[in-house]
Structure formats: C-alpha cells, structure tokens
C-alpha cells in the first residue's frame, strides 16, 4: 500500500481526491467506477478532517491506498477519539430525515463494494472492485464543452453541451448536475449578489454557489440521420449568482457535468392512449424531450401550458422571434397540439394550466395519460383531477437538492411507501403514490 499523511485542512481534500481519481482512471476503470471511488474518498477524507481531527492543524489524516487492475482499496484513518459506527442513525428512516448524521456513511456504502470500520471507529476501509455491479447505475462525471448558450426573454437561457457519455444514456425526465466554478462569474460579482441579498431580504438565497445545480434534460440533439449527435440542452432561468454565472458561459467554455441522474418518465406503459403533457412555467423545460420520445413512439400528444404571464413561459410563441431560443413551434413540428393560457391580461387566453387539463379530461373519449411538471400546487390539483377521472398520471417533482444521488436526503417527499428521494426515486413519480395532503408541499 502507498501511505500519505495529509494535514487537517480542507484545501488538501480536493487535491488528494483528484490524485486518487486520476490513478483509478489510468488503470482503465469505467467512468462510473471512477466516480464512485472519487465520491467515497472525498466523503471519507472530509469526515476524517472535520469530524475526526476537528480541523486541528497538529493532527494528520493517514491515507493508505492500493491500486490494482482488479480493485481499489483505501484506508482513511484520523487521529481523533473515534466513534461507534453502529450508533449513527439510519438517515433513510422517516424519523431521521432532519438528522444531519449518517448520510456520508450511506453514500459510501451506496457506491463502494465494501465499507468497514475498525473497532475504534477512527479508520474506515473502502474497497471498489473493477467490473462489479454498481447500485448507482451509469453516472458520468465529465468536462462538457459548451456548444451554444442562448439567452431569451430577458430571464432564460438554453445551454447546449457536448457530452457524449451523458447524451448516450439520458432520457426524458432525468437531469444533470452542473458544477458552477467560482472562476465563472456573471455580470454581477458574488459580493454584489451578497449586497442584493442584504438589500432585498434577510432570507434571500443568493449566496456564493458551492453545490451543483440540477437541470432537467430539455432536448437530446440528433444529426441529419436522426441519430443522437452526443449533445443535449438544458433550459434555465437566471435567478441568482450561480445561474447568472452559468448564463455567462460562451461556446468553447467547459463546465463540469454529472449525469444522467434520476428516474425517467415511463413513456411506454400506456402506448394505446393519447398523452397530455401539462407544463406550468419552468415545467415546460423537460417537456420537449418527452415530446420527442413520444413522437418516436408514434403516440398522439397534446401540450397544455400555463404561466403567470407570456414572458414567464420558457419558450417563444413563434420562430420568427426566437434567434435560436426554444419555441412552441418545436413541439408543433413533432405533431403536438399546443394550447397555452396565462394569468395575465395579454394576447393569450386567460386561465390556469389545470383549467386546460380539466377541459381536456372532460372532452376525452377513449382515455389518456397525463405527464405533468410545474409548481407543487399545480401538481397537487393535477393529481386530484386525474384521480377523479381515473386517468394515469406521472409527475416530475422538483425539490431542493444538496447532492443529486440520494445521500443528503434533502429532497425527500412523503409517499405511500414512505419517504422518497426525488433525485433517485424520481423525479418521475406516479401521482397516486404521493401523499399530497401531508403538509409538506410548497405552493410556489
């Protein structure tokens, strides 16, 4: 084994984890295996620095690593007092959802083949075997090149990334997590955003970004022969320093992307009935990918869109004003019947997305299926309407995420079978499985 002594400083963690990941990659391990080792190493070393040595600069983390073409073995030992691993609460139990303990251990056990602690508890031994089945699935972490970044309607952007490994595996309903580096800043500096936060409200959430941002698949791009060309797009609204930094990216820039993540929508379950895609505001973003897959399945599709105002819909009404931005005509080109309402007094019929759904369900004859994405209040009403009409309904849920792969539990929602994590148990859920009246949902 190779031994290394690390000072108890957080600045050492990222550098050491990169070195470990590079060694594993050089031995020919798959991208998902490299990703698993990277995550486990980062979690174990961070725990040793913070919880074991308590950031004491006089103490070290002892790292022993063995790299072979067959397996990776890491021993991470701190100089702290140790702990009893059996005393850590199970973060997947409903009563422990708000307990900030155990998630790191859950993460390591999810991604590694074995995780063992010494009796004292100050040393963890992690093993990853090459070619072993991974519970996490094919997750790729890579530097994706920006092909285009198109702003539109003064608040949105369509970002197209060249990432063949992710594009080859991602499906409608899934998402990617993008890391926004501090070196990429938008028109405002982060300090200026801090001033915005202080000016607007004490609880304004524009802070220096350090977590990845989740973005649903918007479009999987194809070549002239109809085959995937290795790129995909996401659509986002600029709402803070992180997304403003993302909006500042230019063609040729690179951004760190993680994906595909989450469970996709099931588009083959009810192939004999029409599909209603119901989108509220930003809920339109993942619907183009769904419409494209439905078109390839030759399923009759209608798009029902609702928003507070026309410029709150993340797409132009017509291609003449798009300049490369999303348009509703992209749906029409796929044979989708498009219907739009807003709550504002503009040149579009007034109403809610659920008003369109209510009319559609009342007029359907042979039955249909509903796939919905939007604010929680809209999804709750959608679930109610579909339950009354006995219409199968899938919803794409959106919750705040800390990690994106099931470790932090921050995106948990109540379901009939217990707490479910939106990032790995969803985002696609059967609407009837969610406990909508449990008092958890936000109406925004």
In short:
With 444 residues, the chain is of the alpha+beta class. The chain is built from eleven helices and 20 strands.
Could you outline the blueprint of secondary structure elements for this entry?
Layout: E1 2-7, H1 11-26, H2 31-52, E2 60-67, E3 71-77, H3 103-111, E4 114-117, E5 123-129, E6 140-152, E7 156-162, H4 164-167, E8 175-179, H5 190-200, E9 213-216, E10 219-222, E11 228-237, H6 241-247, E12 254-261, E13 275-280, H7 287-296, E14 301-307, H8 329-332, E15 337-342, H9 353-363, E16 369-373, H10 376-388, E17 393-396, E18 412-415, E19 418-421, H11 422-425, E20 428-430
Parallel strand pairs: 13-14, 13-16, 14-15, 16-17
Antiparallel strand pairs: 1-2, 2-3, 3-5, 4-5, 6-7, 6-12, 7-11, 8-9, 8-12, 10-11, 17-20, 18-19
Helix pairs in contact: 1-2, 2-3, 9-10
- Overall CATH architecture of the largest domain: 3-Layer(aba) Sandwich
What's the number of structural domains?
3
Sheet having the most strands? 7 strands, antiparallel
CATH class of the largest domain: Alpha Beta
Low-pLDDT runs of 5+ residues are 182-191, 200-207
* Termini gap: 53 Å
Going by CATH, the homologous superfamily of the largest domain would be Nucleotide-binding domain of ferredoxin-NADP reductase (FNR) module
Mean pLDDT: 84
């Amino acid at each position: 084994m190779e031994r290394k002594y690390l000072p108890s400083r957080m600045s050492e963690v990222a550098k050491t984890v990169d070195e470990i990941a590079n060694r594993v990659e050089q031995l020919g391990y798959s991208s998902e295996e490299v990703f698993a080792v990277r995550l486990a190493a980062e979690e174990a070393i961070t725990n040793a620095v913070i919880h074991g040595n308590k950031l004491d600069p006089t103490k070290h983390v002892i790292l022993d690593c063995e790299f072979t073409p067959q397996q990776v073995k890491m021993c991470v030992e701190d100089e702290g007092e140790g702990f009893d691993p059996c005393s850590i609460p199970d973060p997947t139990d409903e009563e422990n959802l708000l307990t900030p303990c155990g998630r790191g251990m859950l993460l390591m056990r999810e991604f590694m083949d074995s995780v063992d602690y010494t009796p004292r508890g100050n040393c963890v031994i992690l093993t990853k075997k090459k070619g072993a089945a991974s519970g996490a699935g094919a997750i790729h972490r890579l530097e994706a090149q920006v092909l285009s970044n198109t702003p539109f309607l003064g608040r949105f952007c369509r970002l197209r990334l060249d990432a063949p490994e992710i594009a080859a595996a991602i499906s409608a309903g899934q998402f990617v997590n993008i890391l926004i580096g501090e070196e990429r800043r938008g028109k405002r500096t982060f300090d200026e955003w801090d001033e915005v936060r202080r000016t607007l409200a004490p609880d304004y959430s524009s802070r220096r970004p350090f977590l990845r941002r989740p973005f649903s698949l918007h479009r999987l791009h194809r070549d002239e022969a109809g085959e995937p060309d290795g790129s995909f797009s996401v659509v986002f609204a600029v709402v803070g320093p992180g997304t403003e930094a993302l909006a500042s990216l230019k063609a040729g820039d690179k951004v760190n992307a993680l994906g595909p993540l989450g469970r996709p929508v099931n588009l083959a379950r009810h192939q004999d009935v029409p599909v209603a895609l119901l989108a509220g505001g930003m809920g339109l973003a993942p619907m183009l990918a769904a419409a494209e897959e439905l078109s390839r399945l030759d399923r009759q599709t209608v798009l029902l869109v609702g928003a507070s105002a026309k410029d709150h819909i993340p797409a132009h009404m017509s291609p003449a004003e798009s300049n490369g931005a999303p348009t509703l005509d992209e749906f029409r080109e796929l044979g989708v019947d498009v219907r739009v309402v807003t709550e504002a007094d503009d040149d579009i019929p007034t109403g809610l997305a659920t008003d369109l759904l209510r009319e559609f369900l009342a007029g359907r004859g042979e039955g249909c299926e509903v796939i919905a994405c939007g604010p929680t209040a809209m999804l709750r009403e959608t679930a109610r309407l579909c339950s009354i009409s006995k219409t199968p309904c899938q919803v794409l849920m959106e919750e705040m995420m800390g990690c994106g792969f099931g470790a932090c539990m921050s995106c948990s929602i109540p379901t009939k079978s217990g707490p479910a994590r939106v990032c790995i148990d969803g985002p696609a859920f059967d609407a009837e499985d969610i406990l909508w009246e449990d008092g958890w949902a936000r109406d925004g």
